[in-house]
Amino acid sequence: MVHLFELMGKKLAYDSECSSIYSLDELSYRILVLYREANGLRPCDEKIGQVCESIQADRKEGIEICDSFDELIDREALFAPKIKAGLSVLYPDSPKIKAMCLHICHDCNMRCRYCFAGTGDYGTHHRSMLSVSTGKKAIDFLIAASGDRHHLDIDFFGGEPLMNWNVVRELTQYCEMKGEISGKDIRLTITTNALLLDKEKTDFINEHMKNCVLSIDGRPEVHNRMRPGIGGKPTYQPISENIRRFIKARESEPTHHKEYYVRGTFTRLNTDFSEDVRHIAQELGARHVSMEPVVSAPGTGYEIRTQDLEAIKTEYERLAEYIDQTRLDGRPIHFFHFHMDFEGGPCVYKRLKGCGVGSEYCAVTPEGDIYPCHQFVGEKNFLMGNVSDLDKITDDNGDLLTGHSVENILDPNVRKIFSDRLLPNRPECEICFARYHCGGGCAANRYFSTGSLDKEYEIGCSLIRKRLECSIWLACVKSEREV
Fold first, then answer.
1. Would the CA dihedral through 282, 285, 288, 294 be positive or negative?
2. Of 288, 253, 307, 272, nearest to 462 (Cα)?
3. For the segment 58-99, what is each residue's pLDDT rounded down to a tens digit?
């Protein structure tokens, strides 16, 4: 579909089926509106004439614009045909688990007010640490479940994984050993609040891990309000110092070790969050930043409400202008939600799968329980299995017994819940121009905000669309400068 919009002085068109972007003048924009009203067909001469007359443009120019649009349409670079992709196309055989969120512990040394994990214990009131043996079983499960997939991803998660550091070290070495034996490329990430991030841990992460996600919310007053330590102690100062030191060390490493993101969360208490992105970039030296909107139950006081949307959308525009300015200044900031490749990014079939929740992605708890993703942990209706069940279908060497598959230990009914709700099967997404960039949105956000996997989280959808418009604007500005 073709999406037309005006943003920060530009009239833009985006064809979601072929990812084409067009910057238009007033006449071209108005004529393209006519094309869209006619479902991509050329408007009649009378309507073209009326549009030209309305802005005192030459009718001949209008005809030439239509000829150009017709040529683009013939080349399927405008009003491109809709991509059809059912489950049989996305998964010709069956989906294989290729990514895992491995919960190193269900405990935390902070007490963030908005934490979906219930300050680390996931609402269980039971704090626990992953053992090395359970962690190894989880890794063995991922390797076995991945089938012929070569690239696997594991995120060491929590709670706060640095609280169980010795297990992180041992499992990292186990991944490297098992990857070599199995012929798999196991790429490691660690997600941390950075409170315990000392030099020893920094050096180890930089040597062994492909990516690192560090959490801080921005300006001191914003961060300390939502992310206190145990007992309400402010945490901004030690965390900011540790992150600053980590980034400096990380960026001195070889190129393939430079991946990291400094991740914050904004609430309705700081809808001027572009200032927090600016603070993270300028004060901490971060070049890779993510700032996520909070998803929380009504009544907390910090939840994003419908009446906040216009202010937040305006703030995304301010943020886009800041990101563009950093490019002009020669030190570009990569903002996660604006960093989209409209030409060489993931193929459309990969994007249609979204995050792969329950199909290609899972989470494993310290007890070995398998869930569709980290946000569903503790929701017993979505429990998929346990990594210890792998022992029932493998021999002493870890090889699968004849006639058995890893699929045998995963609840097919739970997996079907999520495969049935992939983007191609979601009618609400059919008319959305952002459908190929959000993959149908976050299933957990839908579930926890509406109580259903089938209802749309309208606030989230609205913000996704706005971020994509800002991304298109940034891509257009960049392209025009390079001409």
1. negative
2. 307
3. 999 999 999 999 999 999 999 999 877 666 666 656 778 999
- Please classify residue 474 by burial: count the beta carbons closer than 10 Å to its beta carbon, then call 0-12 exposed, 13-18 middle and 19+ buried: buried
The 3-class SS string of 245-299 reads HHHHHHCCCCHHHCCCEEEEEECHHHCCCHHHHHHHHHHHCCCEEEEEECCCCCC
Q: Measured at the alpha carbon of residue 260, what is the angle toward residues 255 and 265, in degrees to the nearest 5?
A: 160
- For residue 12, what is the enclosing H or E element? strand 10-15
Residue 132: its pLDDT value, please?
98
pLDDT of residue 345: 47
Pairing assessment for the beta strands 151-157 and 185-192 based on DSSP bridges: parallel
Tokens, residue 251: 């960026």
| Cβ-based neighbour number of residue 94 at 10 Å | 12
Phi/psi for 250 (5° steps) reads: -65, -40
SS3 95: coil
Residue 387 makes CB contacts below 8 A (sequence gap 6+) with 134, 137, 138, 140, 141, 364, 368, 370
Which residue type sits at 109? N
Q: What are the tens digits of pLDDT across the range 346-364? A: 455 556 656 778 888 999 9
How much is the pTM? 0.91
Query: Counting Cβ atoms within 10 Å, is residue 182 exposed (0-12), middle (13-18) or buried (19+)?
Result: middle
How much is the average pLDDT of 29-42? 96
- Render pLDDT for 397-454 as a digit per residue (tens, 0 to 9): 666 666 667 777 888 899 888 887 776 567 777 888 888 887 777 888 888 888 888 8
Query: Who's near 7: CB < 8 A, 6+ residues apart?
Result: 317, 469, 470, 472, 473
Specify the DSSP class assigned to residue 394: B
Q: What is the mean pLDDT of residues 339-343?
A: 72
Q: Are 352 and 82 in contact (CB under 8 A)?
A: no
- Is residue 139 a contact partner of residue 171, using CB atoms and an 8 Å limit? yes
Confidence bin at 309 (pLDDT 50/70/90): very high
Q: Taking the CA of residue 416 as centre, how many other CA atoms within 13 Å lie in the half-sphere pointing to its CB?
A: 3
